[in-house]
Amino acid sequence: QVRLVESGGGLVQAGGSLRLSCAASGSTFSITAMGWHRQTPGKQRELVADITNGGSTTYTDSVKGRFTISRDNTKNTVYLEMSSLKPEDTAVYYCNARSSIRLRDYAYWGQGTQVTVSS
Predict the structure, then answer these.
(1) Which partner for 110 in 4, 32, 65, 118 could form a disulfide, CB atoms 3.0-4.6 Å apart?
(2) Mean pLDDT throughout 6-35?
(3) Which residues of 47-79 are buried (b: 16+ CB within 10 A; e: fewer)?
């Protein structure tokens, strides 16, 4: 089991910046990748950014050049630096961890943190 605890959401004006943090605990040795997804009411949860144990990153097109994902493996923590925020970035942001144990894959989610960007 992996437990994820997010922090850092809040209200910011358009053009501003926020940093989200997600600390993992439990069976962190099994984690293969961590990332951030977001969801707005009535829409499916979408991938925002993802980073593997090897440091490879993936971003959804709408955040490229504005968001940066990083990991501190010593702290089992993943960060999402968000800059040049837009009102359309408003959503609940969820931390995600993928793990693999004995050839079985698992996905874990945090409780979510609200990010609101005002125009």
Answers:
(1) 4
(2) 95
(3) ebbbbeeeeeeebeeebeeebbbebeeeebbbb
